[in-house]
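SEVERITY: medium
COMPONENT: batch folding queue
REPORTER: lab tech (J.R.)

DESCRIPTION
The queue accepted two submissions in a row. Attaching both inputs and their returned structure tokens so the on-call engineer can compare them side by side.

ATTACHMENT 1
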Amino acid sequence: MTLMEGFIRDEIYIDFGSEPLFGQDQLYDSFPVVFPTVDFALMDTNGLCRIADRIRKDAGYVPLYPLDEYAQEQTDQDGWYAFYVGINGCSKTRMNSCIEFWVGNSQSPDNEEIYTIDLSLDEQLYLYQRLDCQCRKYLGKTCMELLKDAEKLMEEDPHYYGPCPKSIAAEETT
């Protein structure tokens, strides 16, 4: 196992307290290509929060958690992060090329800003495997089955974007 595989295994967890968000996106090459997407909220683990703090610190903002020369009193103690990652029916890896995080309830000027943690192709592949394993365990579906559900929703209503209705999810498991 590589260092990155270990980090992804230990620090990336889907927040199953929130439902996956089914939708669609569009890529314009020489003509528009529409494809299904499924977005997941991630739990704000220590590792992800440290990466987010580093990114914000490099941008000139005070971290939310003690980091380097910043003590507890020098941090933005009221703020929090929300992490999101998505899979899609367009790319080879089936993953978005980054993990997005949002700064919430912060006293900092970057409150409600969205940042990204870029992922290499190998990281995308490891992350897809991790998400697929968690989806099988907790949702009883693979990531590909979730993308197929999103594709069905696109066919039924091209403007739909939201949680998967229970009737469609139930049809796939029976």
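ATTACHMENT 2
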Amino acid sequence: MTPVSQQTEQEAPARSGRSDVIAGLLVTGVGALLLVTALGIGEPVRPAPGIGPATLPLFLSGMLVLSGLVLTGLGLRRRPVAGFEADLLGAGDAEALEELLHEEQPVPWRPLLVHIGLFVGYALIFIPLGYMLSTALYLGATVSVIDRARWKRNLTFAVLFAVIVYFAFTELLMVQLPAGILG
């Protein structure tokens, strides 16, 4: 058996970058969809000089596309583990080596699908129920999925967050959020 530092890259197990490539392409696609949608945002009724209503959505969707492309590129360039092992063993960092070699845990699909479903539900009820109710329901459900035992704390957090953000936007920043059935 040869020491790790003498192994060639062909002998080393290759770390798959497939999950990074898939996630990167997914993020790039979602970012591109949001970018196209943001390009459709019209000008305000009373245009003012400076930043318009599409500026932030365009910036954020552009950053999402860029982040997805970077993640995809990193996944495609993933090196075999041997190069990292040699570097770590030379530095004498056994804990870092163990952490590096530890395989990623598989994605728990059920909780992920629950959160995606909650987010889609939030998007569907946002306008009819309004910001405060829909956000409180969404946050309450989301944090309760994460920690069911503390439902009182979760409910308090969800309601306080929705109310504070609503009044911060509507009163301090003068940005109107959908009032829904409360308005």
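NOTES FROM REPORTER
The CA atoms of residues 118 and 141 lie 8 Å apart.
No errors were logged for either attachment.
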